[in-house]
Amino acid sequence: DAKTTQPPSMDCAEGRAANLPCNHSTISGNEYVYWYRQIHSQGPQYIIHGLKNNETNEMASLIITEDRKSSTLILPHATLRDTAVYYCIVRITGNQFYFGTGTSLTVIP
Amino acid sequence: DGGITQSPKYLFRKEGQNVTLSCEQNLNHDAMYWYRQDPGQGLRLIYYSQIVNDFQKGDIAEGYSVSREKKESFPLTVTSAQKNPTAFYLCASSIWGRGTGELFFGEGSRLTVL
Description:
Oligomer: heterodimer
Number of strands of chain B: 11
Structural class of chain A: mainly beta
Number of helices of chain B: 0
Helix content of chain B: under 10%
Order of helices and strands of chain B: EEEEEEEEEEE
Largest sheet of chain B: 7 strands, mixed
Distance between the termini of chain A: 39 Å
Number of strands of chain A: 10
Strand content of chain A: over 45%
Number of helices of chain A: 0
Largest sheet of chain A: 6 strands, mixed
Radius of gyration of chain A: 13 Å
Structural class of chain B: mainly beta
């Protein structure tokens, strides 16, 4: 099964881009990468997902390396409300979503 | 609005008691999931169900039981056999099958064993 590795914590200045890395070196060719975030004591919120190509939506951008062994979530202009735990998840065959321990992002005023 | 509803939000129980957490969805999703989250930890899969009347164990199923009698409902029972049941429990649903359907989560149920 593909697993993910993320740094436990990161800081980012308000208004700057937040770049959150994720390693998923054992990912298979048909497994998607998803990103979620969780604000304390709430259910995780979907951000973005991708397979091979880079993706962008109103919340963030997802950059996936050509070998698909790693990805980066980019929050282009971080705000205080972006302070949360961010999970990089691989959707494995069988439709299970494997969560790691995530990255705790703190946006600093 | 479509979504997932978990209840109760907070629950206290005495040791040795079973307790059932409710999860209802009106998204018409085939798949439903239960996750457990401990302080400072990620989410761990307890059980999941692809279809009515069928469910599979996840990574930490011991001490838990589920049922899936209706597409909309996937209740989780925390039995007295669960050694350390105090945790935050999250229910989720998704479209099942090849594709890109994401997980939708409820707001969680926090269980405390006294």
